[in-house]
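Progress note, sequence design subtask.
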């Protein structure tokens, strides 16, 4: 059987037996849509989502064309019925694996790598944006949990990586900045802790006109004096 893998994190890619396969734009969007859904998608729904700016008849024709132009490996890539479409059961999807990490974060470097990746960057279709918004919040929570778990295990290096990934995802998220300040202090780097705090405070003031909370300020109050 052919091993099929769809990558959605960091950009779209289809691999057949670890070899990248070229996919035309319409088929690429179709595979991405099915890879994001756990259940079969009705054909009219898929056509309307993928080709929203055309007639129902034209969208249906575009869907049929995209299905015809898909690669036909021995392992089913898409299971097609008269009414629905669903991704083949044996097709691996990196986003689904990342969602499992987000639901139950385990203290592994692989989890940090997957959780810090953006979902289909550069895609602005509404059905992608809705998933991207959910993924952003899920990964932020998971990265902070991971950082705490790494720190409790004494692995400050990966604890720092997880917290930094959360800050890069949401530069105004105070809890992530607070974790980084605490890690710098625990590592005996007070100057770096102050720089982290001041960088966050400057950005918060510039973008929202707000001040950091008392909780993070107390961590560096004596150092600022």
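Output:
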């Amino acid at each position: 059987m052919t091993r099929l893998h769809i990558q959605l994190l960091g950009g779209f890619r289809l691999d057949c037996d670890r070899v990248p396969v070229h996919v035309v734009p319409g088929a690429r969007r179709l595979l991405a849509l099915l890879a994001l859904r756990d259940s079969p998608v009705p054909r009219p729904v898929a056509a309307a989502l993928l080709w929203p700016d055309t007639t129902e008849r034209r969208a249906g024709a575009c869907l049929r064309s995209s299905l015809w132009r898909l690669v036909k490996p021995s392992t089913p890539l898409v299971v097609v019925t008269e009414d629905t479409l669903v991704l083949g059961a044996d097709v691996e999807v990196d986003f689904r694996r990342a969602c499992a990490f987000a639901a139950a974060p385990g203290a592994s470097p692989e989890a940090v790598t997957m959780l810090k990746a953006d979902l289909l960057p550069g895609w602005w279709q509404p059905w992608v944006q809705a998933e991207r918004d959910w993924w952003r919040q899920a990964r932020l929570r998971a990265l902070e949990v991971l950082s705490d778990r790494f720190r409790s295990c004494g692995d400050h290096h990966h604890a720092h990586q997880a917290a930094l990934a959360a800050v890069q995802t949401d530069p105004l998220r105070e809890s992530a900045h607070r974790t980084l300040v605490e890690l710098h202090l625990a590592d005996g780097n007070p100057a770096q802790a102050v720089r982290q705090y001041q960088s966050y405070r400057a950005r918060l003031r510039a973008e929202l006109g707000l001040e950091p909370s008392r909780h993070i300020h107390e961590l560096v109050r004596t150092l600022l004096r």
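The chain has three domains: 4-90, 95-153, 171-225. Work on this subtask will continue into the next period as scheduled.
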